[in-house]
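Quarterly update, task 2.4: (2S)-2,3-dihydroxy-3-methylbutanoic acid-bound model.
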Amino acid sequence: MTTIKGALIGCGFFAVNQMHGWADLDDVEIVAICDRDPARLHDMGERFNISRRYDDAAALFADGGFDFVDIATTVASHRALVEMAAANGVPAICQKPFARTLDDAKAMVAVMNKAGLPLMVHENFRWQTPIRAVKAALETGAIGTPFWGRFSFRSAFDVFSGQPYLAEGQRFIIEDLGIHTLDIARFILGDVESLTARTRRVNPAIKGEDAATILLDHTSGATSIVDVSYASRLSQELFPQTLVELDGSAGSLRLHADYRLDVTTKEGTTTSDVSPTLLPWASRPWHNIQESVAAIQEHWRDCLTQGKAPETSGADNLKTLALVEASYRSAETRECVDIEALL
Ligand code: NAD
Ligand code: 89V
């Protein structure tokens, strides 16, 4: 068995999950880590027993000795780090949001393409077990051709305690969370032609919007709604579950709370439990996301070894990022935004 060697840049809040995921793969080894914050670098190094530690990404790349880099920093550094990977001939995974702007994202895709290197965006929500189950159920054809959908994430969970930077940006829920929900909508119902969005800031203690409602016109002719909120106190706190509703020509599908999937046809309703596995290092309620980290990492390993393009390649993610950009534009102008024109 050949071991694939990786380096991880950004030892913050979420990277711990990525380190656990890599540790679970027998044929992948993280050989070096990097963070400009010495305390975080030290903690991660001790926790996962990594001795090669760098406070500067340029020095990490200069020393080399790894087959891919996993960029787990926040968005401001993504472009520079992907460009560094390209310059050093290293395949890269980059966390979402891939880039601040579509222009940056296009430049990142182009530079990796030019270098002939694989690039995957860590867009993991579509890898969640319940979302894969929705896709599989749709693909059986039981509900026929879907003509309507809803992808809903509504919560009052305190995301700011783990990720304080989320309270600081002018953009919040669409860029951070809605980006996943929009990607799920694309994954389930296909690409999007145009969209219309409305946003609200309910929580006065943050700078960006914490609620958004987005109407999507899919190329297939289906219409869907993506609605996301961190301002919704509900009888049952569902963080971080995405609920899905699909109506098709022959039936319907509902992904309800607590990972219950109903598929209804003229024969009746079949209910199944599509709960994620609680991995040994995971904790509720994050286990759904944590399991999807392991799944996307396995996919990356398979893509690298088999020379396949990742599902959420940089080029693919431009189409998700375009939906984010279009949502902010539509909310500002109150007009319907053409997606193709952005790409
Ligand atoms: P964080 O601020 O806790 O961690 C980021 C770390 O990167 C920090 O320790 C910081 O010092 C380091 N860093 C930043 N720029 C650097 C640079 N140029 N060189 C070296 N180190 C650098 O952030 P986080 O909450 O862990 O989020 C990181 C990324 O992961 C964000 O893009 C966020 O959106 C994403 N995220 C994804 C998911 C998911 O499910 N996919 C969940 C949470 C966060
Ligand atoms: O997935 C994310 O990017 C996270 C969270 C689920 C908390 O919004 O920031």
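Highlight for this quarter: The chain has two domains: 4-117, 126-294+320-342.
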